[in-house]
Amino acid sequence: MKRTFFLVSADYQQDNLQSIIFAQLPSGLFQQNVPSPVRAKDLASRIIHDFSDNHTGTLQFTYEGRSRQNQLSSGQGLTAQSPNGGGGGSAQNQASGGYLLPEAGRSLSGIERHLKYSDKLVLSPSLLNQFQIMFERNRDSTASTTEQRQIAVQNAFVGGGAQATQLATENNVDIRDVLTWSHKTHTVTAGVAIPNMSRRGLNDYSNRLGTFNFATVQDYVDGRPYSFTQQQGPVHFVYWQKEVGGFVQDQIRLRSNLQGSGRALAAPPPSSRAQRNVVRRALPRRLAGGATLPPGEHSPASPGPRRPLTRGGTPGAAEEG
User: Fold this and answer.
1) d(Cα 189, Cα 252) in Å, to the nearest integer?
2) Is the dihedral of CA 228, 234, 236, 240 positive or negative?
3) What's the pLDDT at 306?
4) Domain range for 315
5) Measured between alpha carbons, how far is 94 from 166 in angstroms, rounded to an integer?
6) Which of 73, 66, 128, 71 minimizes the C-alpha distance to 99?
7) What is the pTM of this model?
8) Among 10, 34, 90, 109, which one is least packed by beta carbons within 10 Å?
């Protein structure tokens, strides 16, 4: 029977916050409230279509927005926090407050989008295939309110530009396919996956104009900085990450209360022995996505009353070097 279900939901939040500035300038005490609005947006949509009684497809799109306002008070550090989880929100004049003057603020913006398709197909009474592909695109940016050389006076004020301009992007593809076959006492599950094929880029223009640091306000008036820092070198960075893996597992019911399993994995070699152990334990479940794969260390109870079920396993791993 062909059927279609759909769901759409949206959420928008707005907080008109204020950052309080309490700074000591050469001309005297400076106090001001700076608007620091926070915006957050969320959108989710899902369509489920039954092509037949044995075939179901699901298409899902999400747009997530999160931004975090870092309100600085007197004595706090000057490092603004990035938006939590990326996406769709914005925080204007973030980091204005405390000793930080309005012109040294920054605005953060982020967008996170996911498009996922899942397919479940019953090929026969004993054969099931589950497929999933997901595209992810993230963009996080930081823009300085003004582009000027920064002046930092300890326990007094920070003026000039924030010099925090950055742009970070991420594009990722996730593909998984799991086939399950059941025959008499055997349940064989095999899967392949590309859980992470991504390109990450970063344009970093922070502190490109330099920062003068002064110990006191009088040193600033006299033009006696104790240090000058400036970032030089490349501004554009690109990082590629590719992961490919597969597994085969055979679960055998030897008796009504005794079950055994064998498993073989294939995955890129992690950088440490501890990471290799994590891969051996977690990869089958990670590749399976929503499928349930019983790990060898569990000891569940059998359906019958007061009849313990014993499970044993012989895992194996093959690493590609």
Assistant:
1) 12
2) negative
3) 47
4) 3-319
5) 14
6) 73
7) 0.70
8) 10
Going 123 to 128 to 129 to 134, the CA torsion angle's sign is positive
**Calpha distance 258→304 (Å, rounded):** 13
In the chain, the amino acid numbered 272 is S
Which amino acid, 54? N
Where residue 96 falls (left for φ over 0; alpha for ψ -120 to 50; beta otherwise) is beta
Structure tokens given for 201: 């880029």
Going 296 to 297 to 303 to 304, the CA torsion angle's sign is positive
Q: Return d(Cα 198, Cα 175) in angstroms, integer.
A: 12
- Alpha helices, DSSP H only, in 57-185? none
Return the structure tokens found at 198. 């991504």
Q: Is the pLDDT of residue 107 over 80?
A: yes
Mode of pairing for the β-strands spanning 90-94 and 106-124: antiparallel
* pLDDT range class, residue 92, cuts 50, 70, 90: low
CA distances from 62 to 113, 175, 220 (A): 6, 18, 50
Backbone conformation region of residue 78, classed left if phi is above 0, alpha if psi is from -120 to 50, else beta: alpha
Q: Is the pLDDT of residue 290 over 70?
A: no
Which residue stretches of 124-172 are H helix?
A: none
Bridge-based pairing state of the strands 3-25 and 28-52: antiparallel
CA 214 remoteness from chain centre: 38
Domains identified in the chain, total number: 1
Q: How far apart are CA 280 and CA 274, in angstroms?
A: 10
- The C-alpha atoms of residue 235 and residue 237 are separated, in whole angstroms, by 7
Side by side, the strands of the sheet bearing 157-159 are: 157-159, 150-153, 211-214, 227-229
Q: pLDDT: is 277 or 234 the higher one? A: 234
Contact 140, 168 (CB under 8 A): yes
